[in-house]
Amino acid sequence: MATQSTTFKLNTGAEIPAVGFGTWQDKDAQEDAVTEALKAGYGTEPACGAAIKKSGIPRSTLFITTKLWNNAHHPSDVEPALDASLKDLGTDYVDLYLMHWPVAFGRGDAMIPKDDNGKTINGDTDYVDTWKAMEGVYKKGKAKAIGISNFSRKETERLIKESEVVPAAHQIE
Questions:
Q1: Distance between CA 18 and CA 25 in Å, rounded?
Q2: Counting beta carbons within 10 angstroms of the beta carbon of residue 72, is it exposed (0 to 12), middle (13 to 18) or buried (19 or more)?
Q3: Residue 26: pLDDT band by 50, 70, 90 thresholds?
Q4: Strands 146-149, 7-9: parallel, antiparallel or unpaired by DSSP?
Q5: DSSP characters for 128-157?
Q6: What pLDDT does residue 42 have?
Q7: Distance, CA of 34 to CA of 154 (rounded, Å)
Q8: Phi, psi of 28 (to 5 degrees)
Q9: What is the rounded distance in angstroms from the CA atom of residue 172 to the CA atom of residue 157?
């Protein structure tokens, strides 16, 4: 059984906790939940940032992961999306930055852009191009490690073959 001190070493040398705490859905309870999670060793980014600030726990002792959402897959959107996350989190780096899905939505502010018929608008950015932009923020130190989420084996193999940095983690939902 994983304990609070159980970690795994990533290919970057960083250590990731074996157990994480997700915060995406319950917006009204996130800050309190993250505060309690921090006490135990573990929101949306603003709630996490506020809870981290209130906790008094040194940033260096936390492992913070966030994800690049599908509406920001265009290479020129990757760094600004991370910068917005960093601002919300109140930190100058994340420990792990994940590409949420290997599928791009249409660019813009809508989390899930829809056409007039309610159908999701997909973008045309290839996930390898998105990854190469993520390699850029990794090389700048804004993300200590980069990884993927919800990729198939074929997609993962192609990504590794066509890029410089091997994903440090693959999260499956």
A1: 22
A2: buried
A3: low
A4: unpaired
A5: HHHHHHHHHHHHTTSBS-EEEES--HHHHH
A6: 46
A7: 35
A8: -70, -25
A9: 16
Strand order in the sheet with 146-149: 65-68, 96-99, 146-149, 170-171
Query: How far apart (Å, rounded) are the C-alpha atoms in residues 40 and 49?
Result: 17
pLDDT of residue 3: 45
CA distance 4 to 21: 12
Q: Is the pLDDT of residue 39 over 60?
A: no
Give the length of the chain: 173
Q: 6 near 138, Cβ under 8 Å? A: no
Q: Which two tokens stand for residue 156?
A: 């993962």
Three-state secondary-structure class, residue 122: strand
Q: What is the mean pLDDT of residues 35-42?
A: 56
Q: Are 124 and 96 a contacting pair, CB within 8 Å?
A: no
pLDDT for 12 = 83
Burial group, residue 158, by CB count within 10 angstroms (0-12, 13-18, 19+) = middle
Please say if the pLDDT value at position 74 is more than 70: yes
